[in-house]
Amino acid sequence: MTDAPLPRTQGTWAHLVYVLRANPVTLLAFGMFAFLIFCAVFGPAVVPYDPLATNAAKSLQPPSWEHWFGTDQIGRDVFSRVIVATRLDLMISVAAVALSFVVGSILGAVAGYWGGWLDSVLNRFLDTIMAFPLFVLAMGIVAALGNTIENIIYATAIINTPFYARLVRAEVNIRRNAGFAQAAKLCGNSDLRVLAFHIFPNALPPMMVQVSLNLGWAILNAAGLSFIGLGVRPPTPEWGIMVAEGANFIVSGEWWLAVFPGLWLMLAVFTFNLLGDGLRDIVDPRKRT
Amino acid sequence: MLSAYPRLRAVLLRCAQAIPVVIGVVVISFLLTRALPGDPAVYFAGVMADEASIEETRIAMGLDKPMTQQFVIYVGELLRGDLGMSLTSGRPVATDLANRLPASLELTLTALILASAIAIPLGILAATRPGTWVDHLCRVVVTAGVSLPTFFTGIVLIFVFYYLLGIAPSPLGRLDFIYIEPDHITGFYLIDAALTGDWETWRGAAKQLILPAGTLALFTLAPLARMTRASMLGALSSDFIRTARAAGLTNRKVLYGYAFRNALLPVVTTLGMVFSFALGANVLVEKVFAWPGIGSYAVEALVVSDYAAVQGFVLAMALLFVVLNLVIDLLYTAIDPRIGFEAS
């Protein structure tokens, strides 16, 4: 390494540094993302109180040095509960997005590469899913499959799958007869191999943007479902259910019960949205709106 | 014969395209009703049911018949407007939904009108003055708006306007108990009260409506403002705008007569998508504000495992959304005359 390396030798990394420097908001988003991951991994180990421990003598206390976010109606520490909930909320959304990523990729790649009746059937099917207001469909699915956390994940995955499938289908479709794909086929690669190792990786950058934007949406969705009483059950700490429980106290002025978990939820969604926008700038600067 | 009327042909074609979607929606909602965990008959027979009454329910519901035959029966019931009985209210689900639908529609439509009234001017201003405070405001609103959980915004608004400032009425339902419900004409309180000339009640209903509608509007504002800004920027940089300016047309004429008209199409498309979000978010807002619409009906039904009601709600929402998309697509032909001819 020289003191002033040529920009050309650095490629992607230099571009990344350039984008991060030009757009400090993205850097902030990465920082917040790291913080959320930290909370999810180490949260239960670092919080000052047991999130489930009740203390009737200290119920409904406003925020103080001792209890940063105050205490709830049975004396549980809201701060500890909010931090511990990070893991569950992130887990639900990451699992759901991962599922829809995999399923959407397979469906979209197959439909985009081979086309024909497979493609039409898939498109009809996706149109039908998109014909439902998505949150309402998620409610229906959870109601039908049963009221558990796994089913929240499945429902969120199902309503997200069309976005991935359509994206991959479009990306694969425009490249299926591209020069490099034909060259790979002439070299004796099977269709499946060409699709998986030569064409599909091209769809990954826009997919990553979609993943990031989608994570925020998945968290909102999961929290919304638990807000109306689906999936997570009390006393498990989870942001949506904490806001729902705190809502009963807002009209009597105990605002901290609902506001802090809500703010935390907002922060998480905001982080993923910023991250998605930032990633989009890195992947495709033209798409900025 | 139809080829003489390309517009009409396009409209009919678009209506025909909605049919497979409706069929798909019905199939999915059928699968949802039959995918209940364990045995649907056990659920519908109730908690106190014994073996015999479960078997009876199974036969009464036709669950002993093959799947395809069940589907035919299901479709037949749907065509007659029969969505089953609600366990909680003891009335047919279709009646319950019809009774509560106006409340939801009033809330959603008010919110969308409110959101459009703020978002579209904001987007236009941001596009015509890039880099100014309006543009930055637009960006902040857009990014914050999509991150706001509706149920949380609703609670914060209640806290600020009801508890702290005391200017909003208590967040319980459509009308404070001191007012008398207006006569049922359309089911929309604002319209009904206006029609009967009862402005006292109108004001009461509007006061009750403003917070939930504002909550929903905040949520739907972001995509609308974003799309208006983007498509206005696109339209303003196109050649015909340069030509219009060069021809010496007034700024106003260029902006609203040419640029906005062309930018409107993607905005209307976004409006359709936003409606889907709004219908979902409606459920949450209705729960927060104890709004007696179909969303809170479905939530109450979910809590007590009243599946017929939930599935009826899902189906009704989907059909509503399909119809809405149809209307929006038909609006295109009104906004952009080229579309009708392209399709032919």
Short description:
With 289 residues, chain A is mostly helical. Chain A has helices at 12-22, 24-46, 78-114, 116-130, 134-145, 149-175, 179-186, 191-199, 204-227, 239-250, 256-283.
Structural commentary:
- The complex is a heterodimer of chains A (289) and B (344).
- Chain A has helices spanning 12-22, 24-46, 78-114, 116-130, 134-145, 149-175, 179-186, 191-199, 204-227, 239-250, 256-283.
- With 289 residues, chain A is mainly α.
- Chain A has one domain (12-49, 75-288): MetI-like (MetI-like fold, Orthogonal Bundle), CATH 1.10.3720.10.
- In chain A, α2 (24-46) packs across α3, α3 packs across α9 and α4 (116-130) crosses α6.
- The two termini of chain A are 37 Å apart.
- With 344 residues, chain B is an all-alpha fold.
- Chain B folds into two domains: 15-79, no CATH class; 94-276 and 317-335, MetI-like fold (Orthogonal Bundle).
- Helices cover 76% and strands 0% of the residues of chain B.
- Chain B contains 14 helices and no strands.
- Chain B has helices spanning 6-34, 40-45, 51-61, 67-79, 93-128, 133-147, 150-164, 189-195, 199-236, 239-246, 251-288, 294-303, 307-335, 337-343.
- In chain B, α5 (93-128) runs antiparallel to α11 (251-288), α9 (199-236) crosses α11 and α11 packs antiparallel against α13 (307-335).
- Chain B starts with 5 loop residues before the first helix and ends with a helix.
- The mean pLDDT of chain B is 80.
- The interface between A and B is large, with 50 and 57 residues.
What's the arrangement of secondary structure elements?
The complex is a heterodimer of chains A (289) and B (344).
Chain A: H1 12-22, H2 24-46, H3 78-114, H4 116-130, H5 134-145, H6 149-175, H7 179-186, H8 191-199, H9 204-227, H10 239-250, H11 256-283
Chain B: H1 6-34, H2 40-45, H3 51-61, H4 67-79, H5 93-128, H6 133-147, H7 150-164, H8 189-195, H9 199-236, H10 239-246, H11 251-288, H12 294-303, H13 307-335, H14 337-343
